[in-house]
Amino acid sequence: MASRNGVVFEDFFPAMVEKLGAEGFMKELCNGFRLLVDGDKGVITFESLKKNSALLGLQDMSDEEAMCMLREGDLDGDGALNEMEFCTLMFRLSPELMNSSMKLLVEAIVNF
């Protein structure tokens, strides 16, 4: 799958949801956020994304790709990603998850 900036990645999220369930998948997304977050600021910044991206196998991410990711996910315009923006971006990058997001939402609410 390609994003607007041309980066191609294989969408493993649907398989993860199937294996982990909605709640488990959301926990994994939160874990991904925590790996990339700037510990002092509590958000994903350009610097923290570049510094920590290798932990997720993205060590070859260019500066331009990192900036595109931040711009695409930054809903409040502060130049960084909070946890909600990060999770929203991850869902948006997975067309199959977007198509089945209502089912996931219902499952998460039922299990809450």
TrEMBL record:
<dbReference type="InterPro" id="IPR011992">
    <property type="entry name" value="EF-hand-dom_pair"/>
</dbReference>
<dbReference type="InterPro" id="IPR002048">
    <property type="entry name" value="EF_hand_dom"/>
</dbReference>
<dbReference type="InterPro" id="IPR018247">
    <property type="entry name" value="EF_Hand_1_Ca_BS"/>
</dbReference>
<feature type="domain" description="EF-hand">
    <location>
        <begin position="61"/>
        <end position="96"/>
    </location>
</feature>
<protein>
    <submittedName>
        <fullName>Calcium-binding protein KIC</fullName>
    </submittedName>
</protein>
<dbReference type="GO" id="GO:0005509">
    <property type="term" value="F:calcium ion binding"/>
</dbReference>
<dbReference type="InterPro" id="IPR044205">
    <property type="entry name" value="KIC/PBP1/KRP1"/>
</dbReference>
<keyword id="KW-0106">Calcium</keyword>
<dbReference type="Pfam" id="PF13833">
    <property type="entry name" value="EF-hand_8"/>
</dbReference>
